[in-house]
Automatic annotation (TrEMBL):
Lineage: superkingdom: Bacteria
Family annotation (PROSITE patterns): FAD_PCMH
Organism: Gluconacetobacter azotocaptans
InterPro entries, A to Z: CO_DH_flav_C_dom_sf, Diverse_Substr_Oxidored, FAD-bd_PCMH, FAD-bd_PCMH-like_sf, FAD-bd_PCMH_sub1, FAD-bd_PCMH_sub2, Mopterin_DH_FAD-bd
Protein name in the entry: Xanthine dehydrogenase family protein subunit M
Key words, A-Z: FAD, Flavoprotein, Oxidoreductase
Annotated GO MF terms: FAD binding; oxidoreductase activity
SUPFAM superfamilies documented for this protein: CO dehydrogenase flavoprotein C-terminal domain-like, FAD-binding/transporter-associated domain-like
Residue span(s) of domain FAD-binding PCMH-type: 1-177
């Protein structure tokens, strides 16, 4: 199939883009990488009256680290995030998750702003942004505001931007010393969307036990679930060999999983348990130069 008719606009600057978004009053969709939008247009699942191409906007293509934040512009491609030295230094988890997205061609075109605003629950960046408690910097002709991504992500494929807003950049807090982040992603087939994924942020205490713990789980089409206070019972636990499995079992038990077209709930629960076990095991493992 081919897309339904639409008017094509090519934004020449950020100000031009903001004026277009304001003038079109919600009837203009943004084309950046197009890895999700173009298939939706071709299948006529999306029928916008106007399409705004933003690929000329260098203002949205930047990576900076300052004031305790890693700032990534909305137009930065997945491949650049995976290979950029600032991302690899300050947020290796984000770089690693970017390197696992789809295929090489997808990583060359897809953008972080597009991935986050699409709010696909099986995509890599929503999981990373929720784990890191990232903030989106939103811009419109009315001004600029910064909103935590956890608050913007309402439900699958539903992100709470106003009709005239665009994402200017994504702010990832640089983790404090001693914070370890790990992710485990389970694919049914290479390059496809994950069936389930788990990411963990863990700070170990002097004994190698758990000082702080946050897990984010995506499985079965659910909105990624952030678990922190639900895991308070494990804080202070020592580095016992059975601890990762105990945490994973608790996580799997409290998730509201249901049967899907791809897998029954029992299978999803087993996959979540395995992913969480691997994540926590790696996060608790002594690093080179640390006492065992």
């Amino acid at each position: 199939m081919k897309p339904a008719p639409f008017a094509y606009h090519r934004a020449q600057s950020l100000d031009h883009l903001l004026r277009l978004k304001a003038d079109l009053r919600g009837d203009g969709v943004i084309l950046a990488g197009g890895q999700s939008l173009v298939p939706m247009l071709n299948l006529r699942l999306s029928r916008p009256g106007n399409l705004i191409d933003i690929n000329d906007l260098v203002e949205l293509d930047h990576v900076h680290a300052r004031d305790g934040m890693l700032r990534i512009g909305a137009m930065v491609r997945h491949h650049r995030i995976a290979t950029h030295p600032l991302v690899r230094r300050h947020h290796p988890l984000v770089a690693g998750m970017a390197s696992m997205i789809g295929y090489h061609a997808i990583r060359q075109r897809g953008t972080i702003g597009g991935s986050l605003t699409l709010a696909d629950p099986s995509a890599h960046f929503p999981l990373a942004a929720m784990l890191c408690d990232a903030t989106l910097v939103l811009r419109s002709t009315r001004g600029e505001r910064s909103v935590p991504y956890r608050a913007l992500y309402l439900s699958p494929l539903n992100c709470a931007l106003e009709d005239d807003e665009i994402v200017r950049s994504v702010l990832f807090p640089i983790p404090p010393p001693g914070c370890r982040m790990e992710a485990e992603i389970f694919h049914l087939n290479h390059g496809g969307f994950p069936l389930a994924a788990c990411a963990v942020a863990l700070t170990a205490d002097a004994r190698g036990g758990v000082a702080t713990l946050t897990l984010v789980i995506a499985a079965g089409g659910l909105r990624p679930v952030v678990l922190d206070r639900e895991l308070d019972g494990f804080l202070g636990a020592g580095p016992d060999a059975g601890l990762p499995a105990a945490i994973a079992g608790h996580v799997a038990a409290i998730l509201p999983l249901e049967d899907t077209a791809k897998a029954p709930a029992a299978y999803l629960s087993a996959v979540v348990r395995r992913c969480a076990t691997l994540c926590v095991t790696r996060a608790l493992a002594p690093r080179a130069g640390e006492p065992a």
